[in-house]
Amino acid sequence: YPSGNLAIIITGERDQHSLIVQEDELRTTKIRALFQSDGRSTCYYRNGDEWINMSIQGGQYLDQAGNRVRRWMWPNLSPEPHVPLSPIFISLNCHVGVRILAQDKIFVSFLAMGQQAKFNMGTKVQVSTTSQLLPPAQLGEDELLLLAFRVRILQLFDRMRGCLNFPSTEQWNKMQPPMYLITQAVKILELCMAADISDELRSSIKAIVNA
């Protein structure tokens, strides 16, 4: 961002990659959106509530009260008649926008100081009619909370090291969290989306890892 805060992170592991959009805040790990090459993506409102959630089957759009505004299925995975996806455009903030045109046309754009970067995080997933997608393994409420608190403790230890190594508040406030902590926070949020837990607990876990 023009402020110097980290805006977009792209990570890769084997044949998978992810794009993470962070909020324009000093010393933050607050995630505004996560896009993955396997077709799973989530965008969040500024307060951490879910805005858009997509999978290889389809997606849904929620308002700030948590009500479903729109739901769709991707054409290539739905043999039955379906409601076509109307193009969606949202602004995560004044610099980052998201356009959803089709399963393989999901664009994240970043605009600042007259320069623009655009990323296509769409994917085309073909599934055989003779096979079924296996649901991801789910963790229990206690396990998810423990993972969230573990990441939070590691975040605090990292801040303590920053204070010791850089006594000047101005210096360590500008330091970004280590990449492994950002990745772990993202994975916990993914597990929360897949787990059968209450919205209250899901919000609490988001607040812990994004504190």
Automatic annotation (TrEMBL):
Domain of life: Eukaryota
FAM194 C-terminal domain boundaries: 1-174
Protein name: ERIP6 protein
